[in-house]
Write a structure and sequence with these properties.
Elements: H1 3-11, H2 19-25, H3 29-42, H4 57-66, E1 77-80, H5 88-94, E2 100-104, H6 107-119, E3 125-129, E4 141-147, H7 152-159, E5 163-173, H8 177-183, H9 185-190, E6 193-200, E7 209-216
Parallel strand pairs: 1-2, 1-4, 2-3, 4-5
Antiparallel strand pairs: 5-7, 6-7
Helix pairs in contact: 1-3, 3-5
Length: 217
Amino acid sequence: MSSEDEHAGVESDPLHGSDGVRAYFGDAYGRVEAFAELLADQGVLRGLIGPRELPRLWERHVLNSAAVVPFLGEGTIVDVGSGAGLPGMVIAAMLPDRPVVLVEPMERRTTWLFEAAERCGIDNVTVVRGRAEEVRDVVEADVITARAVASIDKLVKWCAPLLSESGEMALLKGRSAADELERAKYVLRKHGLTGAVEQAPTIPGLEPTTVVMLRRA
């Protein structure tokens, strides 16, 4: 697929540039759109997203990522397993005054994250190469996010050591979030965390995103 075909894919997304999306993102829309267009242009070629995702990029990925922002409290945000930059780059574009650390183990993806941040003018991100369990000496988070990375119990094992004393986790999950949270209860207890499933709406007509909040007990 050529870059022209990929760009046409995002143009065919009915939400791209819609009044509802522009109103939802407000002043951040320009930065978010720049990232979404870059991802649409290069994402398939660089193995970041599949070609079938292009016509639904805004609904399935951009807005889904944005939904977590109201749950992010204060302080440094660390996005674990950033991959294509979802949700980390979207969060950084929406919260330009907050430091956002993108933790990603794959070199080709960290290269993409560096390039995307520079090209889209998103200058509040730091990219750290490594797995969560490998960067605990250099990364401390007030809030940890993750999307499509691992089950809750695994994320807690890997990421809890990165949390500040009052830190919390806001995890983007699917419809089975409650069952997943139940299966993780012993790990949560071990790390002194409690969990709750929250619904995060974005624009009218779209299904709310599920966010699992993990906080200090």
